[in-house]
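USER:
Make up one protein:

ASSISTANT:
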Amino acid sequence: MSAGWAEEKQAAGAIGRRGLLLAAVATMTLGLAGMAQAAKLDVEKDELKFGFIKLTDMAPLAVAKEKGFFEDEGLYVTLEPQANWKVLLDRVITGELDGAHMLAGQPLAATIGFGTKAHIVTPFSMDLNGNGITVSNEVWQMMKAHIPNGPDGRPQHPIKATALKPVVDKFKAEGKPFKMGMVFPVSTHNYELRYWLASGGINPGYYSKSDISGQIKADALLSVTPPPQMPSTLEAGTINGYCVGEPWNQQAVFKGIGVPVITDYEIWKNNPEKVFGITAEFAEKYPKTTLALTKALIRAAMWLDENNDANRKEAVKILAKSEYVGADPEVIANSMTGTFEYEKGDKRPVPDFNVFFRYFATYPYYSDAVWYLTQMRRWGQITEFKADDWYAQTAKSVYRPDIYLKAAKMLVDEGKAKQPDFPWDSDGFRKPTAEFIDGITYDGRKPNAYIDSLPIGLKGKQVVEGTDVTGG
């Protein structure tokens, strides 16, 4: 055997072995691809249109689209801004939208028939916190006399509504109405603003069967103003203050027309803010699609909070696009990157102003739903007494942690999420908490006892008749 022939044989063997190795790798790769393909849900509907309002807390939707999380689940999603919350809800009900970024109170109110009647469910809570209360420069100057300064000479936070009460009383003595804007009658903003005002001895007014203005017996008159119009309405003097999500509090600072006095984090620490809403019919008709969109939204929320909010600067760039929030990146960044500016130049660290995933933010807790229902009852939107069990059953018919945990388990099985990031053993109720501006304890299992413990508001079997509160 010649040396040359031996070398050729050795080389051929090496090529053969390499070929076998490459073939094995190729087979393994195809197998893994097959597994990945198998993990993808066979969705019943892959082209979807979701609605949103131009607020920074719509971020999970924008991120799920921009980062390809929807596509990973076989979903081709169009995101469409809506004119206001009513239009948004109506279009979900009619099927023009497959789902939407919603106020936490919207699915509940629709399901119990306050306003439009429809069974709306949520498998995903979009965020915690994110709102603020802003007053005009004139009102702020009047309030400052009643706010103590901290050691650094700046106003001491959190600022309580007791500092606003003398201002409201002065307006009333002069025969002038004190007006405040909020975004919708069943919005988190309405309930947070009412909670803050009432904690300072200011009655924000009642609703009744015949009068849904919410201004019966009110010291401060609350009315609806669309979020993007808040700053200009304040500047025009039509309202004296407002409660809204970002970037519209920071916009008031940016324009020099108002001062945010408190964030909702300071009113109720880590309060649930927005949810993703779909009709019960959609969830029933398209169960795999519902799981797929929930998976994508969970991944988006994880991305927004991971590595100590390292992705927030990129998120700001995404949200600043005209097709999403369309506000100045500097204004959006003021709150999205862990700070909040109160008076011009008074920027303070508020790392949890926007929370999208940590603290189990995306899990739809029944007790969160019950809190909103207690506030609806407190102010007369739920016109009559309801037993504790009614609150629990209503919450369970709307909030769907079962869908959420099923989607979460799939993500864990696929290696896209970690087991400890989800409350697997939760019964849907958070522990009782007193982390409110007034220190009153809320226990979601005892809604009526909670309602009765609040100093201003309907209690027991009280009802609003005409302009009077009757019964007991």
The CA atoms of residues 47 and 76 lie 5 Å apart. Confidence is low (pLDDT under 50) at residues 1-38.
